[in-house]
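Feature request disguised as a bug: please show the residue count (104) next to Serine phosphatase RsbU, regulator of sigma subunit in the output. Example input:
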Amino acid sequence: MAHAIDGRSVLFRTTPHSVVGTYGRGTVLCFETGRLDDEQAVGWSVVVRGRADVVDDAGELARIADAVPHPTRGLVRTLVVRIPWTEVTGRTFVAPVDPGSAGP
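Example output, currently without the count:
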């Protein structure tokens, strides 16, 4: 999911009638992002937890407008959700080494 970091908050776009758009205001939510690098055989995952809110202040929306990416494939998501995190966890992943490839 396309997202941005603003200080100690994660921001993302959704639709007003999505589950998060409908029920997410004031709710404690988790947001997870990660990346895998097949070439290096490593990856990471980060989860943030916090009470979500919808950004609806015109000045705040103008300030973050260019920072919060729009989704690809022509989807229109007009609601910006902010999760100021109270908890952050993460981990890295490393592919196991093939014992036969270590050399003599």
